């Protein structure tokens, strides 16, 4: 989230699309309904009528996977009816930038597409530069190659009729939606978006969010109270685990994983440190070398970062099609991994195409699963269609401490880093995850020292003990406090930075003081300032606020928030270029003539001296985004499995760059699999249910796998409500109880009736008895080309009556 | 004051306030004052954050002072986000920890075996470390096909976890990268 949960109360219009917060983030709804009581409009756009729809002022049903049609139509509406916030758009976004002559768009493809590699040459989308190397601008927005004019042309194609024919939303509903939301395009109104996996889990996931970011920038909704682009993360620390880079493509703090060919730290830094010649661009990533050196120093405190850089493994590319989840499981299925460490996860139910995933686990020589409870992953070798006697995988289950049996911090969607305390000791025989990591590392160091082995230095030099505390016998134990100190970072020698003197061992006060020469450590520069000499700020429970802060509920002294306790990011955009808030009633920051007051500003520079989007090279919000792999502007494509052979916007049926496997069949307008399907969650369970299916109070409320079916489809198939039915796709099948409900209605797509079914994905064969199995048995191995996130939200199935002998 | 009496008085106060409209909430004031004087004697309180979704609701966890074991988990009414309220999952949090079905020992399943057997952590640690080392040493690539230095382990995958604390995530990142792993993924991807 660019903003945070309490900030929802400040909104004038809350668009909920690609999420169902009343069901899945229930307490967030406290703030949604608070805004509503104060006069805000709440709009829900979703394939199903849900608990969120029931509390919304407007609900529109769209066919799953057609969000870009609906959002592209909104961009068109805003442009045609001049609903944008002109001053904001001209001053703070790249609307006025001139795009180079190479750029073009024809029939669903941008220039630079290579069909052989299914990828684009992004250099064809570059901006035209002036003599200083900065993008040329036309603030009148009249230049035919200005971003503004290119967008007008691109989205002029998204007419109400076309959008309606693909999405199934009526023209009247589209008009009402567009009018309501576009009304926030003024100085004193703020609109916000709450989205979740309903947007990310598509083969156009990133572009769904890009489309909304464009809308928010045009309407002047970024950086302001009650605005922003707000991703509702799914797990209590999925924000933190992403910040800490448990992903192939990044290192902590969104630094890049080194690539082959970047042989030195200098070459690596050069590749990822952007350069801007615009004095008004803060270009914050120009500090990249300080953050990379401090991270390496945190990992290898006794080495020079230049040397220890060699200990970091390197990728051949950052392509999602090469290293992300889907190709990883595919590689496992091919027998190319001998071992897997599976921590706090249940991929046998959570990955797409569970049958493929479960079989892939059987190709490993060994597998370690660490969890609170046994699950379909730890027990995969005795699951359905498995004969333990033919499964080689040597399997370990390690029981771990629960969240209240250890201390440490988690970061919520609003980026608040919140400390948890230990309420009880874990049972004998149960360790925390941190202790497991540390003890395994110690054992490996011991083995490499004793036996030797391949390139042991990265392991033996790792200063893991700096994350630990020693007991009275001198034995080191993992310590969350000590690790939190390291993640913030300390000075490794006496130095003077920016006129301030620091002693060796002192905590670094904020990332502005990090250095590129090994004199500072920081396990994650984004968290630098969280644990200073003042102490661990994630522990703070102080509700005091200034009057300005209290007006919008910033709570700056309650725990801590990255970056540098800034509660609303890009907040320089909440003021005009003179430093006056667009909306003084709900000011986030304000220039008092000498300094900014309110929230921590996005840099302390005087108003008008720096562009507001400081993390971007040019400092301007990107309406035109030349960095994504599938195009600089969101474009409509059908999901890789879809009910139609053509669509209204171009001849390019699917996202041409999507991640998929050529040899895996997909159902496209396939009469064997005529129904659109989507997966989702319910309040009473969580993710694969690997925890909640062991909790009797929750199992009692939601005991069994079900499929939501419209009365029309039930009639077509002859189903009774409550009957056991089979859901099947190209990949597999499962049984579910038919829940016949008006909440799902067929769509009118290109003049034809299209049915949809929806399923929760919380179940698995381990427990409860007769609870059913994972909905992911039927989901496809296709995904977004930027992120690799699988398309769980739109695929094709059949539903039929269950008979004896079915799974 | 007993907790039960407190709840009853609060209910009465709310009713009284409701009936007196905008009048002075005298009863409620008294209750708030008295509640402030209540002392919980038999349990120790610690605060925590709900382990389910990403809203980050505050919890208060009560552990019996004499046994040290958790007896109750509820919403933290001081917390600015949830103000004491919790959803069905959050309100069931205690069952995640205090649960007879939670394994308390490491379990091991030998290749081609049809059952788990209990093993102690020391044994598992030694065995797992040996397996990691073998897989790493056998699959370590110093250079890729183009001859560039890559220093990576191709034979081990790491999955997880958004269920870890930040500090554990950092430890996991450091450990996995020190092993040379490039196939490092978790829930955020799926």
UniProtKB/TrEMBL annotation, chain A:
Keyword terms: 4Fe-4S, Calcium, Electron transport, Iron, Iron-sulfur, Metal-binding, Oxidoreductase, Periplasm, Selenocysteine, Signal, Transport, Tungsten
Ranges where the Molybdopterin dinucleotide-binding domain occurs: 676-795
Record's subcellular location: Periplasm
UniProt cofactor(s): [4Fe-4S] cluster; W-bis(molybdopterin guanine dinucleotide)
Keyword Nuclease: no
GO terms (BP aspect): anaerobic respiration
Main location (coarse class): periplasm
Domain of life where this protein originates: Bacteria
Example of a GO MF term: formate dehydrogenase (NAD+) activity
KW Zinc (keyword) present: no
GO cellular component term of the entry, any: periplasmic space
SUPFAM superfamilies reported in the protein's UniProt record: ADC-like, Formate dehydrogenase/DMSO reductase, domains 1-3
Family assignment from sequence similarity: Belongs to the prokaryotic molybdopterin-containing oxidoreductase family.
Name of this protein: Formate dehydrogenase
